[in-house]
Design goal:
477 residues, two-stranded antiparallel sheet, mainly alpha, 3 domains, single chain
Length: 477
């Protein structure tokens, strides 16, 4: 909900006297920026609304000063902690739903800079402890012109990275929480270097390339080197990772080269050495490259290596992942960073916008492709995969599920895969893959086939998405 609309929505909650006063306070603050990270804001608000016991009108109020925030959170006593409260509840809700994107965006939201009354003024810190440890270790970015902001904001980004890594997400997504360049503390207009566009669904800080990270990619990767990925997800709602909800304009990074096996550019569908790229299969180890994208602006994307039987079977430039989606996301982002570096240095003409476009194409190439699990790590789909102690993991798409009027996705076999329906197949598919691995104790080849099916489903919609997932597992609804 846009801030203006949100404020009107609470008119019934505040007296005629209180509401204009809040508006006057708004006029005294630094030029607003609460919609600068719009994609994160919207995703956090959506997760919050799944279960909102404090009846917070909109997540956007958590990014405002206390006077304005009070209008949207009348049941919150400690407004210095409103941002943490929103993030904590959003994370709890997303975790319960098995929604990794929601969990990621809740973490990112907690770290966004909160508006203050002038350039250079830091916001108050929360003095309470969040329920979720993935939220509790994070505080918000501070105005970049405030005292010691560079070091404070670097630590914020490093803590965000640790929380992301703990749930199996790409830690470099922490860079999405970066704020603006420092403004002039003596500027009477309080303009700073911010932006605030309610109509930009991605976020004007990304669209206008205004984000200035305080931490480097190398510092983030070093900070998370000892983090146990996936440890923060809990039990049956554990989702190892995913491609972006902050998505999904996630700005992340690295380098490398490599092409895919069994990809759309192959001449032979199942010839594991048919690729012409540098990332061909390693026949000695069974490792294969599942990166499908072939664009080369700034250099090709690094290989996404899949190693059958490994505890963390996917690897990009030495960094390992539990889930193919996060590994592919990293590979695409690494290429984007190399492209942006080349554009910023003048080696590549056309600016950095083309790098953003290429990253989107890289994601699309992997999402739209019905990726086959390599023959070295799968049974032929014509045969039955081993689902461990569970029955069929098939997903159906139908109207009336859980009383919904609109069509939604849900497992057919609710005895083994007991999850409510969802409008996004990713929620059900990721839950299914996690359940196969944890409760069903299915072999790794089945889990990887499920992950490939979940990835394939993301490039489709409706019944086609369900068909793509089911086909990868050799089942039907």
């Amino acid at each position: 909900m846009k801030y203006g609309a949100a404020l009107l929505a609470v008119a019934g909650l505040a007296s005629a006297r209180e509401l204009p006063w809040a508006l006057m306070q708004l006029g005294k603050r630094e030029v607003p920026q609460e919609h600068s990270h719009e994609s994160i804001l919207r995703a956090a608000d959506a997760a919050l609304k799944l279960n909102n016991p404090l009846e917070i009108v909109d997540a956007v109020f958590a990014l405002l000063g206390n006077a304005a925030a009070a209008q949207g959170a009348p049941n919150v006593q400690n407004l210095d902690c409103l941002q943490q409260i929103v993030a904590d509840q959003a994370f709890t809700n997303a975790k319960a739903a098995g929604d990794l994107d929601g969990m990621i965006n809740a973490i990112l939201f907690r770290a966004l800079e909160r508006n203050t009354l002038k350039v250079g003024l830091a916001s108050e810190l929360c003095n309470e402890t969040a329920t979720n440890p993935e939220i509790a270790n994070i505080q918000q970015h501070q105005d970049p012109a405030s005292p010691n902001a560079a070091e404070i904001n670097k630590q914020v980004e490093l803590e965000v990275a640790k929380s992301l890594a703990s749930i199996g997400a790409d830690p470099l997504l922490a860079l999405k929480t970066a704020t603006f360049a420092p403004g002039d503390v003596n500027d009477p207009t309080a303009k700073g270097n911010s932006c605030n566009d309610e109509t930009d669904p991605v976020g004007c800080i990304f669209t206008l390339n205004l984000a200035v990270p305080a931490a480097t990619e190398e510092e983030i990767l070093a900070a998370v080197s000892g983090v146990d990925s996936g440890a923060g997800n809990g039990d049956d709602t554990n989702v190892d990772d995913g491609t972006d909800g902050a998505d999904e304009c996630e700005a992340i990074v690295d380098d490398g080269s490599g092409n895919d096996t069994d990809a759309g550019s192959d001449a032979g569908a199942d010839n594991d050495n048919a690729d012409s790229g540098s990332g061909n299969n390693d026949s000695a180890t069974g490792t294969v490259n599942i990166q499908a994208f072939t664009g080369t602006l700034g250099g090709p994307p690094p290989p996404v290596e899949s190693t059958p039987g490994a505890a963390r079977p996917f690897s990009v430039n030495g960094n390992t992942f539990l889930n193919a989606a996060a590994a592919i996301q990293r590979s695409c982002a690494i290429q984007k960073n190399a492209c942006a570096n080349a554009a910023n240095s003048g080696q590549l003409q056309g600016g950095t916008q083309q790098c953003d476009q290429q990253e989107a194409e890289c994601r699309a190439a992997n999402n739209l492709r019905k990726r086959r699990v390599p023959v070295t790590e799968r049974r032929q789909f014509g045969g039955q995969l081993d689902f461990g102690s569970c029955g069929s993991p098939a997903i159906r798409f139908a109207e009336g599920l859980d009383g919904r009027k609109e069509a939604s996705f849900q497992n057919v076999n609710l005895q083994d895969f007991n999850h409510g329906s969802a409008l996004n197949i990713r929620i059900i598919a990721d839950f299914t893959c996690q359940r196969l691995q944890s409760s069903c104790k299915a072999p790794q080849e089945t889990v990887q086939a499920c992950q490939a099916g979940a990835q394939a489903a993301q490039g489709q919609s409706g019944q086609a998405a369900a068909n793509a997932f089911n086909s990868a597992l050799g089942v039907s609804a």
